[in-house]
Amino acid sequence: MTKYIEPSQGEIARLKIVNNSNLFLRLTTFEDGSTCKGWQELIPPKDQLEINNRDLKQMASFSINIRANAEFSLQTHGYFAYVTKCEMLTTFYPQPNLTYEMHYSYNEGACSLGVIKLVKTPDGTKAEPEKTLRQREIVAGITNSGSICK
Questions:
Q1: Considering the domain boundaries, does residue 149 fall inside one?
Q2: What is the residue range of 45's domain?
Q3: What is the pTM of this model?
Q4: Per-residue pLDDT of the chain (150 residues; tens, 9 = 90+)
Q5: Using an 8 Å Cβ cutoff, are 27 and 15 in contact?
Q6: How far apart are CA 39 and CA 32, in angstroms?
Q7: What is the CATH number of the domain that holds 44?
Q8: How many distinct structural domains can be found in the chain?
Q9: Range 126-131 contact pairs with CB under 8 angstroms and sequence separation of 24 or more
Q10: Is residue 141 situated within a structural domain?
């Protein structure tokens, strides 16, 4: 298991991860977002952590830099009282120098994960649904060498 390290050079996009739910979120990303290989644990900043110092707390958010012009995949593991309620794997293709928001929600036993792109216009900033977003199927447990998605 390795920790996610934000890119500091090359083509970069910004991603804000927003937990709009009453669940805690464990977040995993991958060195290769298209194949879901090379598991990387995404740990939020200290002020947004759940008590175990690993997971995003309820109704919280934080932002990270991600590589642009490459698929980015994020697995979310939503739980409460250490019982898994919902797990999702989502992929999108970020463009350089743009900002995105990924919103996680959980309502009546169903979870959703959506991505919007923030586009600057002469009138301000406009939120658009991210057209490259796709939900992935989780096919295996996480290992550093194997793929877990379809």
A1: no
A2: 2-136
A3: 0.89
A4: 689 999 999 999 999 999 999 999 999 999 999 998 888 999 988 888 876 678 899 999 999 999 999 999 999 988 887 777 888 999 999 999 999 999 999 988 888 999 999 999 999 999 999 999 999 988 866 555 567 787
A5: no
A6: 9
A7: 2.60.40
A8: 1
A9: 127/101, 130/92, 130/100
A10: no
